[in-house]
Amino acid sequence: MDLSIVLTFLIFGLPLIGFPFVIGIGFLKKNYSMYLGTSLILISFLITLYIFFSYTVNGIVIQYNFNWLPSLPAIIPMGVYADNLSMIMSLMVSFVGFLIILFSVGYMKEDPNRHIFFGEMVLFTSSMLGLVLSSSLFMLFIFWELVGLCSYLLIGFWYYKPNAASAAKKAFIVTRVGDVFFIAGIGAAILYSNGAALSISGLTSIHLAWQQTIVALLLFGGAIGKSAQFPLHVWIPDAMEGPTTVSALIHAATMVTAGVYLIARTFVLFPYGSIQVEVILYIGVLTIIMSGLIGLVVNDIKRILAYSTISQIGYMFAALGLGLGATSIGLAMYQLEAHAFFKALLFLTAGSILHAILNVRDVNKMGGLWKKMPITISGMFIGVLALSGFPGFAGFFSKDSIITASHNAGFLLAWILLAIGGFLTALYSFRLFFKVALGKPRSYAAEHAHESKWIMLIPVVILAAFSVIFGIFQRGFYSFVETGSAPGVFGISPLNSMDLVPVVLMLIGMGIAYYAWGRPSSIPQKVANGARDLYLLVKNKFYIDVFYTNVIAERGVLGMSAVTDGFERKAIGGLVNASGRLFQNSGKVLRKIQTGLARQYALIILIGLVLALLLLRIFMLVGVIH
Amino acid sequence: MITLGNYDYLWNVFVLFIGAFVALFVSLATERRSVMVAIGAVFVSISLIITIFQNFSFPIADGNILLSGFSKLFFIAILIPGLLSVIGMSKSPLSKKPGLMIFIFLISLGFMLLAIASYNLLFIFVAFEGVSIPTYVLAAYGKSDNELEAAIKYFIVGAFSTGLIIFGISLYYVATGTLSLGATPSFHSIYYLAMGLLVFGFGFKLAIFPLHGWAIDTYTGASNPVSSYLSTSSKIMTLIVLLNILFASPLFFNYLKILFAIIAILTMTFGNVVAISQNNVKRMLAYSSIAQAGYLSVVFLVAGTGAIDLAVISLFMYALAYGFMKAGSFLAMDSLGNYDIENFSGMWKRNPAFAVSFAVLLLSLAGFPGTLGFIGKYFLFLSVLSTGTPLAYLVVIISVINSVVSFYYYGRVIIYMFWREGVKEKVANNYLLYSSAFFTVLFGVLYFLVFSYAQSIFPSVLTHFMGGI
Questions:
Q1: Residue with the larger pLDDT of the pair B327 and A365
Q2: Calpha distance B113→B20 (Å, rounded)
Q3: What is the pLDDT of residues A177-221, one digit of tens each?
Q4: Which of A22, A103, A269, A309 could form a disulfide with A119 if both were Cys (CB 3.0 to 4.6 A apart)?
Q5: Is-contact B67 B75, C-beta < 8 A?
Q6: Interface list for B 437-466 with A (CB within 8 A)
Q7: How far apart, in Å, do the first and last CA atoms of chain B sit?
Q8: For residues A510 and A474, what is the distance between their CA atoms, to the nearest angstrom?
């Protein structure tokens, strides 16, 4: 095997092999596992960097497959596929993963179970990298499930808190719904491509449009679950019960964007103008508007960020839903990477704040923190500017390009809604910022806040820097990602007057936010009272959670499970117990022939021999079956 | 370097014999057990290294010994548990004469390698006895009542079987006019009689039903390294000897297959069912070796079909797994004074590494995915299934049901180790157990490497059994 292939395997293989050691070494001394975990991810990142600059940039695609089950006639490939798309993604994952795990060294310093935390973080990062670099849908699915498992484990890391435990279960169950679609999609893909689609590159051999639609929609079902799009978005806000670094890594930067990556990876199934791209576009747009509205009324700092994540991922799907081939992939991936930086930044600053004010998460109890924690809150300011798309920051280049592209491609309705989404983004992000940073401290904890340690500030500063400068990579990024993908349908057109619409809307949103929340004001209260019905609808998250819990879970699933439970207990359980008793009793009888007398053993042998020889003789005489 | 003509290729055997005499001479100067065990371990390792790096492709002794990739694979499968067992002798409370013990051990191991490479019944018989007689002595080592009883039973049944083998060989000569394997018989009924006798004579070491009686008492009574050795290396050797005899037989394909199907089913069912009612873990392991012998015997069903290549590679993987699992678990008993299942309770608190490793081995024995035990079983059953006969389906289905049943008694020990409180006494670390568990999982996950290694050594099996290379 070539060195590059070995190295590519090591990108995710090293932390995968290393994670038991991270946990194990923690039994000696807990801090060792922090250092080991951090260095494993750092090495992974360095290898990625090396591969990226010495192979990917030079246009070399690293590809290697081995046969997973050599005994079967069909070849099930397992291996790596490192092209531009997957390398740019794994570069981001390992880099952001490293920064966040570095931040965790400070953040989790006092937790008694931190060795397990770091072990799980390392396992997560390796599975995410494995997912990105997989060459086959099967392998991708395995890692897809592994990141889901890690997400479950890490959300429930503080399992003694009832909220965290139930949030972990909710995340697991809701994403499972998506996974069912995903695995059905894999099955359909294999079926329609006569087995070729076991490897991702084999997806091109699905030719008929209706077959493409079925496979594409099923895969998109999986993506919806993982990437928390309507209607399976309900788990992310609850997932905020986990440690904030987990939210930053898994529920903002990496895992939730796996769905976007999956669609980008399988984009041959999403040709321009097909049903599937329309579905993606409008699911994305719907998600943006819905979660933007909810983000306006939530008070928990992390949940605001969670709804913002849902809405930003909506933009990525909207970009893919334009169906512009490689252009779409470029737009979506650029938004993905920019979002990873500024959302990780926002989560880390939020974590830093929570660390300082004793985990009070209600934004109404914060205020005036800019003076107490200048670096953290400046970082948050940059993050908010980037998120809302202030000109010059990362979000401006990524998000506004998507909005503009939708206009250029002629999706008028989508364009309007996406622009309104941008307005909502500015509104909720500055509401968050103003409530946290300005005014007077509104609680005892906020009055006594203090700046965090340097090890937590370094990642914040680095991510802030990336949120500012990432925009300069835009053109290069597009052409880099588009190399090797299907050619784009439309290029990015030069600036025209309509491009200013999102910027203007964003500035208006910013102004309104200041007017309403940047200073003492009763306007929000008045608006809420004025449109009482709408407010309640949004405040209750459009009753989607209630619908799932009360109708689907309690009426449908519980009833069904009562029936199957009865069947399982009575019929299957009875059968199992009966066969268990049968074996146990016959064991008691049969052990009696083990008398311990050697002469009896010889006798048994002799009887057996005679019987066997008789049997052979009979076979020869009768000439039975062959 | 002394050259012995074609016998050069047998250096891995000679090294063991040389080691035996080195041990004997050194024991004149010192009787320290650690030194003796070190000598044994070093020579077994050298033999293993020679085996791995040597290219075997020569018939020697006028074609009566065949060295091929097939032999090489199973040399490895025999030497690895042999190495584990000899290292295990450093711990076990064995007698005061370790020099003699290592001498006997290495002699028997050398003959094992010769036995599986032989292609002539007389050669096989001599090598087989060269294994049997030293192992009778090994089983008696320790000289307590338990060990003596174990050895005597082993010896009596062994002597009885030797009679059957000799009788079988003479009838074979009558039927075919030669002692070489793979000969075409002139008298079919005598030939079948001879084959039946040979199966029963050799099969006693494999401990298949109804030849299992001695095995339970001997595995339970003998000291742990000896039990480990008898139930791994010795068993794998016997299996390969039988495989050589029967696969080479041109008339094997029909009737003997049905006989073997019946024997395999009876063996695994008997072993599993009785293991359920055991409370002594070592005795449970003894019964589980019977059951495992049943799974291993399934391989005879592929004789004469296209599945034979895959079957032999799978058998190698299963034999490797079996060596690690059984040697590791028998040697683990050395850390405990009392093998009652109650004595395993609270193991997770007493020594977590022991509990986890032992649980891994038990799961592997039961055939839990992710371990080499599962992989071995999976490929073996798959190769049998690919012959496509109703008989194969029947046997595989019963084997799978048996695997499910076996989860009961393996799982019971795991439950005691992790979820029962009780004994508080500390348990010593057992690195042989840990390394066996480690390799079981490592090869279980990276099984495709083992698979392609076996494939690269041995692309085609059929020629070997035709008497070629």
A1: B327
A2: 15
A3: 899 999 999 989 888 888 777 788 888 888 888 888 999 999 999
A4: A22
A5: no
A6: 448, 451-452, 455
A7: 26
A8: 25
